Amino acid sequence: MSASDESIGLARLAAQAASDKLATDLVAIDVSQYLVITDMFLLCTAANDRQVRAVVDAVEERLGSVGAKPLRREGEKEGRWVLLDFGDIVVHVQMAEERVHYALERLWKDCPEVDLELDSPAGGEPA
To answer: What's this model's pTM, rounded to 2 decimal places?
Structure first.
């Protein structure tokens, strides 16, 4: 079984919100075949703790506009890796050091990636 269309849609909305705040290296991984608790992971990188917070706020606002609210939020105090659990998708906003160290893409390399179909961030180059 693969991720639902609803999960993919939420991941794309979250990814566009993150991209609009200039998050980089956005990757969506369909983990539905291996996990029963969620369908997708969305991974993105932020340059510093302020950008992590800005990306988190933008993702929450964008998904909130379609009625999705985070069930759980982890790591906000430190601001280096914030996890937002929306049930069907889990968004990981990480600083570059955490992204490299924990290498979630490597851990989930057997899972398919999903095309995020991103537009250009507001006023920027294509993500």
So the answer is: 0.91
SS3 46: strand
pLDDT tens by residue, 42-61: 999 999 999 999 999 999 99
Do the Cβ atoms of 68 and 10 come closer than 8 Å? Answer: yes
Task: State pLDDT tens for residues 93-112.
Answer: 999 999 999 999 999 999 99
CB 33 within 8 A of CB 42: no
The CA distances from residue 115 to 12, 28, 57, 78, in Å, are 8, 7, 23, 30
Q: Under CATH, what is the fold of the domain 5-114?
A: Beta Polymerase; domain 2 (3.30.460)
Domain boundaries, the chain: 5-114
